[in-house]
Amino acid sequence: MDDKSLCLQHQGLTMDLSMGPNFSITSASLSAFDTIAIILLIPFYDRILIPFLTRYNLQPSYLQRVGIGLVVRFATLGKKNDLLT
After folding, report:
1. Structural domains in the chain (count)
2. C-alpha separations of 32 from 11, 43, 76, 80, 85 in Å
3. How far apart are CA 71 and CA 85, in angstroms?
4. Cβ-based neighbours of 41, under 8 Å, separated by 6 or more
5. N or C: which terminus of the chain carries fewer CB neighbours within 10 A?
6. Which long-range contacts (CB under 8 A, 24 or more apart) does 44-51 make?
């Protein structure tokens, strides 16, 4: 198992997973929310954000996109570390 799935399992075991009086989700289904978020955010990025930036001549190069992704990744790792300790 990778770090992300272990973190989601740990969160799921400590969270209140009830969503109303008659419905609750399982801790194993938390990873599905991550996948759904990525499926929704990639078209937003390609169809809305990049054309918006291109219109104002602010389109980042591929290397800048990789750098932005790394910065976001390290920021989320740092926040996760703060939450788990």
Report:
1. 1
2. 14, 18, 18, 18, 24
3. 21
4. none
5. C
6. none
Structure tokens at 67: 């750098």
How many CB atoms neighbour CB 5 within 10 A?
A: 13
Closest CA to 25 of 17, 33, 13, 15: 17
* Containing structural domain, residue 75: 3-84
9 neighbors 29 (Cβ within 8 angstroms)? no
Residues in the chain: 85
Which residue type is seen at 83?
A: L
SS3 24: strand
